From TrEMBL:
Coiled coil: none annotated. The lineage of its organism: Eukaryota, Metazoa, Porifera, Demospongiae, Heteroscleromorpha. Its cofactor is thiamine diphosphate. Residues 184-193 have a biased composition (Basic residues). It catalyses: N(6)-[(R)-lipoyl]-L-lysyl-[protein] + pyruvate + H(+) = N(6)-[(R)-S(8)-acetyldihydrolipoyl]-L-lysyl-[protein] + CO2. This is 2-oxoisovalerate dehydrogenase subunit beta. Pfam families: Transket_pyr (PF02779). Residues 162-193 are annotated as: Disordered. It comes from Geodia barretti (Barrett's horny sponge). Keywords: Thiamine pyrophosphate.
Amino acid sequence: MRRDPAVVFLGEDIGAAGGVFKTTVGLFEEFGPVRVRDTPISEQAIVGAAMGAAMTGLRPIAEIMFSDFFAVCWDLVANEIAKSRYMTNGQVSFPLVIRSANGGGARFGAQHSQSIENWAMMIPGLKVVAPSNPADIVGAAGGLDPRSRSGDLLRAEIALRRQGAGSRRRACRQAGDREDPPRGRRRRHRRAR
């Protein structure tokens, strides 16, 4: 946000409260209420405002508190945001990021614990990013196409906030530049018991 004044952040309780998971602590104080905007509890309004902001040349980051709530704004995401660049032959693009917490294990209940990245992966024009490190998060904000960020975001978001500005510049690259093994071929190594 320091390097690009076109980046704005929209979401519930992301301003003075610092986000429900405290991943936006300090952004409101540093960038003010024009670039870090608290929104009403309406995922459709958040995504719709981000869509409008992107159409006017801004690069919004819209935070949906839990990915389960994508369902209420699916028409905007699937039929408008993801396809508009192709329907207008590149005249209109939506360079926005929709960020959300994803998956279970944090005791938020069944309605806040789904993993919806497989839904989003089926939409032409939408890029789904599940960052594994801060560099992937920074890189996800680039490009002209809309992106949905999901996965275990909390650790990576907090790690990004702890890095200095120089580290962020070095880390800035397009997500997916690194050669990672395909998801189904990754292995987790543990010590034997």
